[in-house]
Amino acid sequence: KLQEKPKDSGKVTITKTFDFAGEEVRVTKEVDSNSKEAKSFLKQQEKLQSAAPASLPTVSGVKRPSGMSSLLGKIGAKKQKMSTLEKSKLDWETFKEEEGIVEELAIHNRGKDGYIERKAFLERVDHRQFEIERDIRLSRMKP
Fold first, then answer.
1. Which of 1, 82, 88, 110 could pair covalently with 18 via S-S, beta carbons 3.0-4.6 A apart?
2. Residue 52: in which H helix or E strand, if any?
3. Which pLDDT value is given to residue 11?
4. What does the pLDDT look like over 26-79, one tens digit per residue?
5. Is the dihedral of CA 87, 93, 97, 101 positive or negative?
6. CB neighbour list of residue 45: distance below 8 Å, 6 or more residues apart
7. Residue ranges of the domains in the chain?
8. What per-residue confidence (pLDDT) applies to 122?
9. Pair 3, 17: CB distance under 8 Å
10. In which band, very low, low, confident or very high, does the pLDDT at 126 lie, cut at 50, 70 and 90?
């Protein structure tokens, strides 16, 4: 289930409903109205709105869906499922927003104490060590 709330600043708020472990999880994301995701979302909304009136037949000979079955169909509509990894990522993003630590984490990860920086440093050291050992082996082989 998707919803749209256009704003004055050119942003589009997209709300998606997922099913996670039998619970309904709503994910709200605000994107720029010119972005690819916003455009695809708006196209999807237009398709849903144009399909709704066309689905009810006006010919008297065609059987219309009864009120109760159409309500049950809407209620029982399958929601997109959310994996455990997606839910964990969503929870982590929500926690960072609530605690206000997004900038602090970005600054910390950019520094020399960051995990990625340490891995890159160790990789460079390992590569240099390999080149030194290779040069020594090649120099010993030649008479």
1. 82
2. helix 36-55
3. 85
4. 888 888 888 888 888 888 878 777 765 544 555 555 555 566 666 566 565 667
5. positive
6. 2, 4
7. 9-49
8. 94
9. no
10. very high
